[in-house]
User: Fold this.
Amino acid sequence: MAQKRDCYEVLGVPKSATIDEIKKAFRKLAMKYHPDVNKNDPNAEVKFREINEAYEILSDQEKKSLYDRFGHKGVNGQGGQPGGGFSGNFEDIFGGFNGGGGFGSIFEEFFNGGNANRASKGQDVVNQVQISLEDAFNGKTISIKLLDGETKEFNIPAGVDNGMDLRMKGKGYPGKNGGPNGDYYIRVFIKPKSDMERSGDDLVYTLNINVLDAVSGKKVKINLFKNETVSLTIPELTNLTKLLRAKGKGFINIRNPDHRGDLYVKLNPIMPKKLSKKAKETLDSLKKEAKVK
Assistant:
């Protein structure tokens, strides 16, 4: 089975494209490859289906978010299958064209100049914000300034992921000729942290540990974030390449707040900078005892 092409590549848009840019690219390609215009090209229908599928995914914020994280396998069974039929409204996609008589009417109006008086949705707004990993873990309320000058408090929920779009419906640019307003999107970017990284809903923390504590074992308290402390036991003779797990201490799943990922602790052994004569004698004694056992 042939591997599906990247949706952004199919539409010829970057990953940072707004919904309006995605719509514009789809309009252009749909006009070019629609079977009604390419009746003598047997490949036109296949090409059009591919364009249609890519648009179905990238024009839906939830599907787009899943696709950005997991690729095509993330949207399987959600309307992103080839040949599954277009789930959107073509009157919305071809918002600059009038007539309800199917593709024939759409193309007829396209080539005749369209109807400038048709109601159409206003342009969306994308506002990029950067937050800390801790803010993504706990959630954060930010102040944003809307197009009308109003300052509004906006809640970024706990569990938000890097690159995710959060929507305020109808807060974008005004529609034309009585059409609805566009939407206002908050696109979230998360600042990296040197000792932590996110992996899905899991959190991976790097813990610096004295090699002697790894040998003898130790109980530690890890201060992940404000008001988020985890107690962990490092067993004696711990394998330093092994990840230690604290179940349910990772990120909240933004779509299922009752579920949390896990915390994985990666040990980073720290060697002593200097050993005293007594410490060396003690280590020599330990080495001899370990050989006996």
Notes: Confidence is low (pLDDT under 50) at residues 78-113. The radius of gyration is 28 Å. The first strand starts at residue 125 and ends at 131. Residues 218 and 234 are 5 Å apart (CA to CA).
